[in-house]
Structures are given as structure tokens and as C-alpha cells.
């Protein structure tokens, strides 16, 4: 694909000038593994040093087409000029002043802007800003318990809400995330996700046998499960959750950390089911890669707790807020519409893979630019991820046996066409892999198949 971006110049994207990983990348991986925490899962040995749009240049000068967006974070692409400009301008004025203890103007402006674009039950909303998705998940647990005076929280099997203790207690996508860290936060139940028939669990199991509805503070749900496999619920499921919450005075929390900020073709995925939560959480793409999370809630809920009940030294940092305001402008200025259109293009290109590679490709699902392709085994998903990397396309696994495509919302028609072609080639290569399994062996040799999936 010819490119005209500032990083690639006249080079095509992707453009591999060394084997991958190249010599500098291999040397850096060795250096990294000497000094960094081994807890980081690392999907494969990409060593990025520069980015522009959907183009990533690695330490060896190879150009990759990025369909990961740093785990669905760089919503406006790498180094969007409007976002970079806003960051530079704010950094030149004020790098930090804690909004937890003082009246930072851009903090209030960002809270207003995020609240105004968020559909909240009851209409009037206020916002709290943190540094990450996990932080605002933690904030929502505190707010729900404080406002309702109830102890219990319900999350879902397959959910991923983060790695801090409260968020980890809600997470149920893989048992190994809990391994060695118990006991976790008490008072958390996990419900089956996604099917309307599953909603009977609340009356037949939870409220009848485990906890009365009057003691359940909140139900927290990803409108589309992210790390759990890009699972889209049946129509009626989210509407049914809203009805259960209304019936019993339970708060509905929508975790839009991965699905929000325009990724699914609407500002928030939950809008596609016409559901308004009591609390909505966002992070990742809302600030194009700067560390910002937001909890938007019914105003009466936030007004139920007073000064000192919650806060953060860095949350709502002015530079991150500037990035968020620029990002929202871009999302509303056409990127959400582009996510919808390019998502339609992606589905048209991906769905034939299920028929072409029957038995290998089990499902193609998602909304907008939140796309999941499920394979018959976890090993085959990892091999497809590796085969794509070897061809210059960056994708990322999710769930037990799926690969996600989550490009920046700036993705062009030509970039999408290139990604679909390369992804199809990667799937084809795995489909005809000989008994010696050269793809798998190469990936294992590079540490890209370890049985430890990337998460987020």
C-alpha cells in the first residue's frame, strides 16, 4: 500500500527491511528482559520507536500497519497533529496541578465535555477523572456501594475490568489472572454473559440462593466484552439488565473502556441497544494514548458522597485532559462515522473467511472497528497473529481462541483493504501449515507462543 504519511514518506506500508524481529529488536528484547517485570505478558517482539497514523516504525526501521492501536487506545491514530498540538500547548502552560485539592480549569471543562456526550439514566450527569480504566472501575465500586449502602457487585463470566484488586475481583476472563492473589474483594458474583436466557440466573440463582436483590449495589457489564473475546450480546440482553436494575434499585455500570470513544460506530456501544446506564466508565481511546479515565454518573449518585470520599493526585492531569478534548473533537468531527463505514468494509472482507477456511475460522463478530475472529484452537489464533506480524500487520489475540482487529478510527479504505489482504494471507498460511508446524515453531522460538495471552 503506497503511503503519504509523514513517517513512511514514499515507502509502502507495511515495508519490512530486515527479518522480524530484526537484530536490534532481538537485542532490545534481551535488554528488556533483564530489567522489566516478568509479569508483562508480551504478545510478540515488536519494538516500536515511532508512529504516525496507522504506521509503526520499529527499532530496525521496519514499517508495520498497526491494527492494535496499543490495545484499542490510539483512537485517533499515532501522533495525530491535533492531539499532539493540544498536548504541546498545554504542556507549555501547565504540566500538573492536582485537581483533587485545587480548582484546575481544564479538569472541569473535560468533566463537562465527557458528561455531555454520555447518555446517563435520569439525564443530569457529573464526572470524575482518573488515570486509567482500572482506576475508574475501582471508583465505580466505591461509588456504587457508598450511594446505595449495599455490599454486593455483579460482574460477568468472560469480563475483563483491570488488574488492580477491585477490578481484578470483577475480572473473570481467565482464572490465571486470579492465581496467587487471593483472597480477592469479597461480595462479588459472576453471572453468565450474553444470552437473554442467561438473565434467568438473577432470579433463579442470585436473588433466590445467594443474595437478596435488596443487597445488590450494582451490575457492571462490558456492552461488548473486550479481552474476553470481543463477544457481542444478543439483542435484549442489555435491555434485560436495565430492566432488572430498575426493578430492584440496582445501579447499572457500563464499562466502555474498550468499546467506547467511537470504536463501535457510536460514541458508546451501549447506545446501539438504546440502554442508558447509571454509571459509564471510559479510558483507553478517550485521550488518544494519554493516561486518562473517566467515571460519568448520575449527578445524584456523585452528590451522595462528600469531600475526601475519593480523589487522585494525578487523575485529570491537564496534559491528558487537553488530549481528551482534542480527541472528542475529532471523534465528533467524523471519526465515529468512519469507524462505522470502515467496519462495514471489514466485515465484508472477513466474513468470507469462515466459508473459505471452514473448521479453522469459527466466527467473525463485533461492531464498527471492534472486530473479533474466532479460530478453532488457541494455538491457531496465536499462529495467525504471528503470521500477520511476519507480514507486517499488527493484530492482537483475545479470549481463548480469537484474534482482534482494533485499528485507529482514522483508518482509510486503502489501509483496511491492505490489512484484510494480509490477514487473509496469514490465515491461509496457517490453514496449509505442514506437519512440521514451521509457523508455530518460529513463534515459539521468538517467545510469541507461551500460553500467556496478552490482556487488556
Global shape: globular
How much helix is in the residues? 25-40%
Number of strands: 15
**Low-confidence runs (pLDDT<50, min 5 residues)?**
none
Q: Supply the number of helical segments.
A: 13
CATH architectural grouping of the largest domain:
3-Layer(aba) Sandwich
Mean pLDDT across all amino acids: 96
Q: What is the level 1 CATH name of the largest domain? A: Alpha Beta
Largest sheet: 7 strands, mixed
Q: What's the helix-strand series? A: HEEEHHHEHEHEHEHEEEHHEEHEEEHH
Rg from Cα = 22 Å
Note the main attributes of this structure:
456 residues, alpha/beta, Aspartate Aminotransferase, domain 1, Aspartate Aminotransferase, domain 2, seven-stranded mixed sheet, four-stranded mixed sheet, 13 helices
Produce a short descriptive summary.
The chain has 456 residues and is α/β, with parallel strands linked by helices. The chain folds into two domains: 23-80 and 334-445, Aspartate Aminotransferase, domain 1 (Alpha-Beta Complex), CATH 3.90.1150; 97-316, 3-Layer(aba) Sandwich (Aspartate Aminotransferase, domain 2), CATH 3.40.640.
Write the topology of this structure.
Elements lengths: L22 H13 L12 E5 L2 E4 L4 E4 L2 H4 L8 H13 L11 H12 L8 E6 L2 H16 L3 E5 L8 H6 L17 E4 L8 H11 L5 E6 L15 H12 L2 E5 L23 E4 L10 E6 H4 L15 H39 L4 E7 L2 E6 L2 H13 L2 E2 L1 E3 L3 E4 L7 H19 L6 H8 L11
Parallel strand pairs: 3-13, 5-6, 5-7, 7-8, 8-9
Antiparallel strand pairs: 1-2, 2-3, 4-10, 9-10, 11-12, 12-15, 14-15
Helix pairs in contact: 3-10, 4-10, 10-12, 11-12
